[in-house]
Specification:
single chain, alpha/beta, Rossmann fold, Guanylate Kinase phosphate binding domain, 2 domains, four-stranded mixed sheet, globular, binds guanosine-5'-monophosphate
Length: 212
Amino acid sequence: MEREGILVVISGFAGAGKGTVVKGLMERYDNYALSVSMTTRAPRPGEEDGVAYFFVDKEKFEETIAAGGLIEYANYCGNYYGTPRKYVENMLRSGKDVILEIEIQGAMQIRKIYPTALLLFITPPDADTLRMRLKNRGTETDDVIRQRMERAARESEGMEDYDYIVVNDTVAQAVSDAHAVITAAHARPSRNGQLIQTLQEELRLMAVNSKV
Ligand code: 5GP
């Protein structure tokens, strides 16, 4: 039986390892499609256009908003980020579970537009682990680490609005946990209306015909 794809939002603090978890899901399972966002921020070294993001200027981004080409967008640290509509809609229709790795404002917009979307929040087991992960990257100054920890404190206020919390202690376990939650979502009665209806009709008919 055809199953419709689930729109899966993955958010989490910077340094929580959400990118690694998403990569693990894509590598280990074949039911996922990863949406590539559009952004006005400049590419970082090694980031390819069309792979990491679609890198555009502000005019192009605003044109795309006006044309209804994004299903959500947000301003994050002075740059626009948004999810292109076409890819998401096509992939969901084809039965793929579509992953959006987006921040919290975007996640809340998705919740309103797609009430059946599944919202996952990825977090380290504790605050000290987050601090150490940010420090061990070695790329950020103490001041930037402090700013990110402050942002994490603010973002943690929104954790209760997500459907599931995935603790990223080891990546392998976090990937399995995220996949388990998504698999379970497919089993909900609300996503199996056709199966339920067909079974109910068949059983009713059998009862009427006293078929054994
Ligand atoms: P970065 O600049 O580090 O790649 O991303 C900054 C933040 O923007 C991250 O939390 C990332 O998940 C989020 N982000 C990336 N793409 C989108 C998007 O399309 N929409 C929204 N709302 N956030 C996004």
